[in-house]
Design goal:
154 residues; mainly beta; 4-stranded antiparallel beta sheet
């Protein structure tokens, strides 16, 4: 593995690598956070770096969480609002990026997605502050489960 950062030092700044994922072509993807509203994705393919900023993604990531690939080689990721000083957010909580176009998913303005994982059926499971959500891309359905309403038996 060889990754030449020549010319990217100024663009990358002091970005913090929040998450790393490997696609089906063995390209390395990084979720990079500088500070709130200054996040980008980076792809390392054959030692060459490509940055994906809000201009390409079509939305301004607040702060990236975990990223992971689905079976179609689309990158799925969480947008983390835990650094926000408010209990609400007005942006996407999850995104799906096929390398060219990004789609964002919004649950409601109070859900804080902590992480995502994708199962073999391409359901995107989202860990929330107070429960979990499952997005089924095939039928476009989102199910949100609040753990506060569940009854746990001993």
């Amino acid at each position: 593995f060889n990754s030449d950062l020549t010319g990217f030092q100024n663009l990358l700044g002091l970005h913090f690598v929040q998450s790393i994922a490997i696609d089906k072509n063995d390209n390395v993807w990084l979720a990079l956070n500088e500070k709130v509203n200054e996040a980008c994705l980076a792809k390392i393919a054959n030692g060459q770096w490509t940055l994906y900023t809000s201009d390409v993604l079509g939305f301004q990531p607040y702060y990236f969480g975990i990223i992971q690939f689905d079976s179609k080689n689309s990158l799925c990721g969480a947008i983390d609002y835990s650094l926000s000083g408010t209990a609400y957010n007005d942006g996407a909580q999850v995104f799906i990026f096929d390398g060219k176009t990004a789609r964002s998913l919004e649950f409601d303005n109070s859900k804080d997605v902590k992480f995502v994982t994708v199962d073999k059926h391409d359901n995107i499971w989202c860990g929330l502050t107070d429960g979990y959500a499952v997005f089924n891309e095939k039928n476009g359905r989102l199910k949100v489960r609040n753990l506060k309403r569940m009854v746990f038996l001993p």
